[in-house]
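User: My collaborator sent over this chain with a note saying "see what the structure looks like." That's all I know about it. Can you take a look?
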Amino acid sequence: MKNTALTSTHESLGAKMVPFAGYNMPVSYEGVNAEHETVRNGVGVFDVSHMGEFLISGPTALALIQKVTSNDASKLTIGRAQYSCLPNENGGIVDDLIVYRIKEEQYLLVVNASNIEKDWNHISSYNKEFKADMRDISEGYSLLAIQGPKAVEAMQSLTSVNLSDIKFYHFEVSDFAGIENVIISATGYTGSGGFEIYCKNEEVKQIWDKVFEAGANFGIKPIGLAARDTLRLEMGYCLYGNDINDTTSPFEAGLGWITKFTKDFVNSEALQKEKQQGPERKLVAFELDERGIPRQGYDIVDGSGKTIGEVTSGTMSPSMGTGIGLGYVPPIFSEVGSKINIQIRKNAIPATIVKLPFYKSK
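Assistant: Without extra context I'll predict from the sequence alone. Here is the result:
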């Protein structure tokens, strides 16, 4: 089991630690609902240093990225980031990721912790043609997500950059908490605003301590992975391994918006055909009409009790107090307002297909 540079800090704060993607990670501190609320209304900090980082450089860096990712990375200027995915050769998804353009010929790919080795091997197999310089820097870097509507105000004293000027999916490489050359990125997987901070492992403890000092008057708290999951689900953001995997296509998963046919990429011909014909199933968002908690793996059934799909992510929404979830169903059941049922033990609980996000910020 690997540790992040902050594992002992989490333990000293009384975090409940669990194995996650090969790392010893904090799942919660004071409880998922309280932590969720902190991020929705104030500011909280996640240690997500288990995520993977690849640095791709050189004159062919962009060509390699264009080949292996579905989005159009040629649109990126220095200081911009882009959500994308790595399609596989069979219509599925190797991983979802964020692509940062750091310099003219240098890009940072941020990938899911559980897929670091798989992603590296996949990209490397295509790099035989492009021969870009590839470095896996995952082990040497830490990542903090400082999230919530008070993040800008709470963190402004730590940097010379005007944080309110950094637009969503833009970033600055600057000073932060007394450390130079830190990536301050206006990204995150909570839907409540804030930043992600990339730094070296030996720098992260200083940054963590100064972040909590600066945020003290704003009620800042450490947040675990359990609340990260409920926050992302309320926004309808896909989680790799749940809602997307090697067998789900970008069009089934509602990720057509990051699939650009302005270039040739892995399996683009087959995906273009799927786009024209329409996928055979669709990822939908649903809310339960009665009390209950949908969980991953529960059957989705029609009015006659026939199984038509399964829940990929589900929870009791801390913000709304209702059962919410995502799951794949045939297109005929995918229209907003359509009725389905979630099989929770012996009961088929009625649910309604809704438009994302579940949570609308005030």
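A starting point for your reply to your collaborator: The CA atoms of residues 101 and 107 lie 5 Å apart.
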